[in-house]
Amino acid sequence: MIIYVVQPGDTIDSIASYYDIGTDSIIYNNQLSYPYRLAIGQALLLTVNANNGNNDAEKRTVMSGGYAYPFIRRFTLTETLPYLTDLFVFSYGFTTEGELIPPSLDDTWMIELALMNNTRPILTLTPFGKDGQFSNYLINVLVNSPSIQENLIDNLLGTMSGKNYGGIDIDFEYILAEDKIAFSQFVERVRIAANKAGYPVSVALAPKTSDDQPGLLYGGKDYRLLGEAANHVLLMTYEWGYTYGPPMAVAPIHKVREVVEYALTRIPAEKINLGIPNYGYDWPLPYERGKTAARTISNTQAIEIAIAHNAVIEFDQVSMSPHFTYEQDGIQHEVWFEDVRSLKEKFSLIQDYRLRGAGYWQIMNLFRANWLLLADTFYISPPGPF
Q1: Of 173, 334, 338, 345, which one is the catalytic site residue?
Q2: What predicted TM-score, i.e. pTM, was given to this entire model?
Q3: Distance (Å, rounded) from C-alpha 46 to C-alpha 186?
Q4: Is 173 assigned a catalytic role?
Q5: Which tens digit of pLDDT belongs to each residue from 154-199?
Q6: What angle do CA 288, 290, 296 make, to 5 degrees?
Q7: Hey, is 63 helix, strand or coil?
């Protein structure tokens, strides 16, 4: 597969003719919509007939995971599962007594579909309060009470067995700094119990670049302790560009690399999964801190916006991310998203640093070119021993 960047005057017919490939292939790979207009600067993934020198013998086998809510479209999940080792079902909560709170929608169909595709369904545990936000109060109560932990672990294992889950992912955020050690001990306790029952345990890590990085997202996460406590970890290497922040790349590659390089000083590479965003943001301008809120969009939606407004897509060489601006109803907008060029950079980090694999937040919107490129770059490991 090759990446082609659309130039002025290009059409899918002219591109197909030049590479001697079918237009249907271009349309399918890139999820193009009729009448198949293209945006200048758009990156297309092409399946070419010529031998481009790739040696499959050099491809590594990696793990691939993706988070999804139970309201994901069945078509989207069906199209995505062949490329996943693990499906992280988001999410299960818990009470201050250690009772599990299941998702508001039934997740049984997701588990069954995952197993049919030889993908391991993973129960994702989150400390959501009544307001639907991460609650460090709930975390504090849990990690400082052995009896509540024991009850929660019993409930987790019972649910895992009863619903045919294959693993546990602990996604706790905004942990108080004073709970750092207690949280790591909780993860270890879950891992020991789960491993005895045959289940792996992973933990999500905020994107740190030093041990003492300040901030509520970072103080409660000790990379070394959590790397030892869990079977593997997910680096949440995204959200530099976020809803309430200024316009910028969601996962700028130079920032992602800094997190990976720090993580490798604390955690073995074979335990690390690189977080990859499957979305972008659309900011109205001018940006005003505390007032401006970006709209979350899919990567394919970003392309559709660019086409609709005749915007030229540019590619930032520092963040290695695509972006563009457009005007609608008298308001300027700035869009940053992911395409196959930015994804290729992230795959190179996985390759260069010999990481365990990739973890996607989230897979609610199908981005077929990503999965085709991932499969062209790596072998996707089937679920196996942890």
Answers
A1: 173
A2: 0.96
A3: 47
A4: yes
A5: 999 999 999 999 999 999 999 999 999 999 999 999 999 999 999 9
A6: 85
A7: strand
